[in-house]
């Protein structure tokens, strides 16, 4: 189990090697961007991009934000994007592009903690997959937790959703398959919710809704809300959010997620 092709990317970073890798999923050749440390790998971060097509695509700068000298960061492009074969199904079989990559990396580095980070559209991408994978935690950052809320609130996206998924009533089964909250359990890996209070693309009430549902389920989670920030935080706030995410991963790895895990940080 491994990637079937690796193409060195012209990115000059002294601590890591950037490669565009190809792997096989459902008979398709799917690509992703891998950032592998030159030192021993002690942590893996899977970055699940937002958007569709060229909007929100995986970029080297975004992967670098989650790295240190011993962290491997990988971002799947999803099928139908950036040279990957197939068609993006918006939380359909493209979910397999996430799970296959993680299983390859888990096979290559069997004793290394894996953390998933889902941004925007990637939020639901991760919620639909993380509980069935060998991962230590999941971070949903400005992420969509519920496809019904997406359809209801993002009128500008309804045309795209109707084309790719259908109508919530007419194609109810397709929407039920994308209902992530019904699949999360008390024993699912712990979740960190990161969100901006002034996010206009994915309103912070969606983060509140996710937290409420996790409370009901009994899933371990924390929240980190930056009340003056939008979908993408400003530079100083971004550093603070990244530090929080990295500390979360360390806490999970050290088994120091305490009983006050429903901690609500608002800045």
UniProtKB/TrEMBL annotation:
SUPFAM superfamilies: alpha/beta-Hydrolases. InterPro entries: AB_hydrolase_fold (IPR029058), Peptidase_S9_cat (IPR001375). Residues 92-250 form the Peptidase S9 prolyl oligopeptidase catalytic domain. It holds the Pfam family Peptidase_S9. This is Prolyl oligopeptidase family serine peptidase.
């Amino acid at each position: 189990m491994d990637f079937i092709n690796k193409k060195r990317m012209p990115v000059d970073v002294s601590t890591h090697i950037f490669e565009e890798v190809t792997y096989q999923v459902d008979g398709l050749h799917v690509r992703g961007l891998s950032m592998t440390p030159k030192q021993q790998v002690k942590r893996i971060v899977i970055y699940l991009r937002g958007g569709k097509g060229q909007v929100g695509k995986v970029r080297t700068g975004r992967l670098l934000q989650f790295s240190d000298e011993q962290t491997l960061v990988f971002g799947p492009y999803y099928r139908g994007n950036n040279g990957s074969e197939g068609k993006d199904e918006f939380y359909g079989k493209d979910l397999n592009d996430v799970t296959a990559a993680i299983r390859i990396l888990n096979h290559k580095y069997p004793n290394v903690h894996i953390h998933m980070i889902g941004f925007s559209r990637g939020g639901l991408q991760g919620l639909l997959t993380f509980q069935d994978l060998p991962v230590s935690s999941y971070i949903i950052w400005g992420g969509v937790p519920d496809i019904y809320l997406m359809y209801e609130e993002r009128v500008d996206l309804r045309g795209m959703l109707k084309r790719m998924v259908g109508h919530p009533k007419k194609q109810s089964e397709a929407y039920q398959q994308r209902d992530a909250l019904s699949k999360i359990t008390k024993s699912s890996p712990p979740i960190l919710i990161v969100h901006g209070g002034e996010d206009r693309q994915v309103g912070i009430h969606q983060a509140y809704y996710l937290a409420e549902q996790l409370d009901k389920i009994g899933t371990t989670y924390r929240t980190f809300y930056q009340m003056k920030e939008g979908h993408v935080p400003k530079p100083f706030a971004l550093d603070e959010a990244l530090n929080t995410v990295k500390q979360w991963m360390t806490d999970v790895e050290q088994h120091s997620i305490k009983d006050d895990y429903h901690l609500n940080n608002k800045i």
